[in-house]
Design brief:
Blueprint (H helix, E strand, L loop, with lengths): L3 E5 L3 H12 L3 E6 L22 E4 L6 H11 L3 H8 L1 E2 L4 E4 L1 H13 L4 E5 L10 E4 L7 H11 L4 E7 L2 E3 L9 E2 L9 H4 L2 E6 L1 H13 L20 H6 L27 E7 L6 E4 L8 H8 L10 E3 L2 E7 L2 H4 L5 E2 L2 E6 L9 H20 L11 H12 L28 H22 L6
Helix pairs in contact: 1-11, 2-11, 2-13, 3-4
EC number: 2.1.1.74
Function: Catalyzes the folate-dependent formation of 5-methyl-uridine at position 54 (M-5-U54) in all tRNAs.
Subcellular location: Cytoplasm
Length: 451
């Protein structure tokens, strides 16, 4: 295939799109502005750098929609999942990775591919010709965001993503903390002890909530609005919604027993998840925050076990720009007004590493087929990837469109199954069985062999 595919952005979606297209025989140029032009959140120039959590969430492909998405991407030869598996860390039933090892491995595979080249350059406009995939993610540069707004005639929507802090493991007081996964979940001892837990009694919890509410927060710039994605709420925003909110969210005291005081039931528990292969870094689970740096250190050191905590990274907040995809994109992820341009990843209105990579996988395959002069069959809406695609390209209400994680609520229902909580195990298994059969058939029908 002589025509070159240009991909703007080397994050999860751009990396996966490049891999899929190159494996299908297409020559690809990845345009990545880092490290020449940095962002506040990125630390390196590696492709597929993880800037927030190091977790790909549940890996259960029978009872969880994101686990099913993992399965579908593995079946499609996904680079992101292959490298995630190769750099896996203990995390109970979740798939967590060594973020540095993962990004380095993805980068190495892409730059060594004979059909892929990487150009360090910032693209600031939408091109008039050629084949392009824009996968610039939540940190799309201001110039490019303005070009997209101009081209589409609409304002890009925005909300704010908050980043959780990372703690040095050797600064945690293990006379108060302990290792345990919730409900001892995991097949190995390493999996069953994948999290660090810090307990709070009622008085400690109430003081912590008071401090959260009183702490100085990051101010928003003029013209910005604080429209948060519910799956990534700052902890202080959750606390503002009610003093008990955190106890029913990231600080829920269930499925865990304090070995230092096994007869005492904690009022709340803070969990930390391993963040690198060495086990020297742990991120505080669910503790995304927009508190100012000085306030963060003071508030987080109120947590029992973290009184002397040293932070490898404090939390932060950033704007996330995304398209009103149901209005602007067609079912092939093409910009309706400029069909030579596709979008992929978080900018399309999916949320999460895996969902972003999945849309990159699909965009890369669709672009490769187009370059080859053939059309792929429609992606079945009963698959995880198909459900996401359907949602962002027409299934969602355009007027209220917000970023979405994959979930079974996006899937067409399976007829004849019991509803409600009692029937959900059978229902979820039916969803995943149906999806696996449909995805396997689609991959067989949509095969593109490398030239």
């Amino acid at each position: 295939m002589a025509e070159t595919l240009h991909i703007v952005g080397g994050g999860m979606a751009g990396a996966e799109a490049a891999w899929q297209a190159a494996q299908a025989g297409v020559y690809v140029v990845i345009h990545e502005m880092r490290p020449q032009t940095g962002t506040f959140a990125h630390r390196t120039g590696h492709l597929a750098e993880m800037v927030c959590s190091n977790s790909f969430r549940s890996d259960d492909d029978e009872q969880n929609a994101v686990g099913l998405l993992h399965w579908e991407m593995r079946q499609a030869g996904g680079l992101i999942m292959e490298m995630a598996d190769a750099n896996r860390l203990p995390a109970g039933g979740a798939l967590a990775v060594d973020r540095d090892g993962f990004a380095q491995a993805v980068t190495a595979r892409l730059v060594s591919h004979p059909r892929i080249s990487v150009e360090v350059s910032e693209i600031t406009d939408l091109p008039e010709d050629g084949r392009w995939i824009f996968a610039t993610g939540p940190l799309t540069s201001g110039a490019l965001a303005e070009a997209i707004r101009t081209a589409t005639g609409t304002d890009a929507l925005a909300f704010f993503d908050a980043i959780a802090p990372i703690v040095y493991a050797d600064s945690v007081d293990m006379t108060k903390a302990w290792f345990q996964s919730r409900y001892d979940k995991g097949e190995t001892e390493e999996e069953r002890t994948a999290y660090l837990n810090c307990p709070m009694d009622r008085a400690q919890y109430e003081a912590f909530i008071d401090a959260l509410l009183a702490a100085e927060k990051t101010a928003f710039h003029e013209g910005e609005t604080a429209g948060y994605f519910d799956g990534c709420l700052p902890i202080e925003v959750m606390a503002e919604r009610g003093r008990e909110t955190l106890r029913h969210g990231p600080m829920k005291p269930v499925g865990l027993t304090d070995p230092h005081a096994p007869e005492v039931k904690p009022h709340a528990i803070v969990q930390l998840r391993r963040d690198n292969a060495l086990g020297t870094l742990y991120n505080i689970v669910g503790f995304q925050t927009k508190m100012k740096y000085g306030a963060q250190a003071d508030v987080f050191r109120m947590i029992p076990g973290l009184e002397e905590a040293r932070f490898a990274r404090l939390g932060g907040i950033h704007r996330n720009t995304f398209l009103n995809a149901p209005t602007l994109l067609d079912a092939q992820l093409r910009l309706k007004s400029r069909p030579h341009i596709r979008f992929a990843g978080q900018i399309t209105g999916v949320e999460g590493y895996v969902e972003s990579a999945a849309m990159g996988l699909l965009a890369g395959r669709l672009a490769a087929a187009e370059i080859a002069g053939c059309a792929l069959p429609e992606v079945p809406a009963v698959t995880a990837i198909g459900a996401l695609l359907t949602h962002i390209t027409g299934g969602a209400e355009a007027k209220t469109f917000q970023p979405m994680n994959v979930n079974f609520g996006l899937f067409p229902p399976v007829e004849g199954l019991k509803g409600g909580r009692r029937g959900r195990r059978d229902r979820y298994k039916a969803y995943t069985d149906r999806a696996k059969a449909a995805w396997t058939a689609w991959l067989s029908a949509a095969r593109l062999d490398a030239a």
